[in-house]
C-alpha cells in the first residue's frame, strides 16, 4: 500500500471540481468524493421507477453493503453543509441519468450500470436531485462565455428551491400595498391575476439572481435588443414525440425522449430569422429543463445573430 499521487480519479474530474469551485465556491460548499451514506440513508424511501405510481422502497442488506463502498463525485451544499445537488461525473462512458435509469452508448460493464442505478434509485427515492453527466455539460457553452450547462443546472436547482420557499412564506397582498383583509375583499378574478403576477415575478427575479445562464441571456438580450423584433421558442425532443398528445400521455411520451431541448427563433427585419437550438440529455428532472433549455437556446440564437452582424459589418 502507498499514497496516491492525486485524490482525483482523472485530470478531467479535477478540472471539473476546480471549475465548480470557482463558479460556486464563494456562496456554497463544494465537496468531492463524499461517501454516499454521508448524504443519504435508507429510511423513508420511495420507488420512483414509475413516477406516477410511487411505492415504498426498502434497500436490501446486500445493496446497503454496496452503498457503504461507494461515493459521489461532486456534492453542492449550503454553507451549513445541507445538501442541494449531487453530480456523478461519467468521463469514461459519457453516460447520463434518466430518472432512476443509467444510459450510455458505449460498451459498459454490468456492475457499473447496477451500482449507478442503485445510487439513483436511493437518491430519487429521497426526492433529491442526483444526476449523472458526461464531459459535454462541463464545457463552456461558447468560447466567449465561460459558463457551462452544469452551471445552469446547479443554478436552476438552487433557484427552484428558493422560489418554493418564497412562495410558501410570501404575502401577496403586501407586494401590492394591501392588508390581508383588503386583499380578501377584492374580486376573485383580480386576486387571481395578482397572484399569477406575483408568482411570475418571484420566478423571474430568483432565476436572475441565482442562475448564471439567465444572467447571461439577459446581458446579451440587452446588448442586441435593437437588432431583433421578437423571438419565439419551440420545444424539441429526440426521439420526437407526438405533440397532439395531452395530459399524462404527453408527460409519459416526453419521459421516453433521450434528449430534450428548445429551438429559439429571433425575428429580425435586416437578417431574417436567426435560430438557436440546444438539446441536453433527458435527466428526468422536468423542473430543470422547462426554462433552462429555453434560456440556453436563446443565448445560442443571440450569439448566432451577433456573428451575422459582425460578418456583415466587415
Outline the structure in words.
The strands form five sheets. Strands 1-4-5-8 form a four-stranded mixed β-sheet. It has eleven helices and 13 strands. By secondary structure, it is of the alpha+beta class. α5 packs antiparallel against α8 (188-210), α5 (149-169) packs across α11 and α9 packs parallel to α11 (286-313).
In N-to-C order, the SSE pattern is: HEHEEHEEEEHEEEHHHHHEHEEH
Distance between the termini: 63 Å
Low-confidence stretches: none
Strand numbers in spatial order across the main sheet: 1-4-5-8
Helical segment count: 11
* Percent in strands: 15-25%
Describe the main β-sheet briefly. Answer: 4 strands, mixed
- Fraction of helical residues: 40-55%
The assembly state of the depicted protein chains is single chain
Structural class: alpha+beta
Question: What's the Cα radius of gyration?
Answer: 22 Å
Number of strands: 13
Give me some keywords for this one:
single chain, 314 residues, alpha+beta, 3-stranded antiparallel β-sheet, 11 helices, 13 strands, globular
Q: What topology does this entry show?
A:
Layout: H1 11-24, E1 29-35, H2 36-39, E2 45-47, E3 55-57, H3 61-68, E4 71-77, E5 83-89, E6 96-98, E7 101-103, H4 110-125, E8 130-133, E9 140-142, E10 145-148, H5 149-169, H6 172-175, H7 180-184, H8 188-210, H9 212-223, E11 230-238, H10 247-256, E12 259-267, E13 273-281, H11 286-313
Parallel strand pairs: 5-8
Antiparallel strand pairs: 1-4, 2-3, 4-5, 6-7, 9-10, 11-12, 12-13
Helix pairs in contact: 5-8, 5-11, 8-9, 9-11
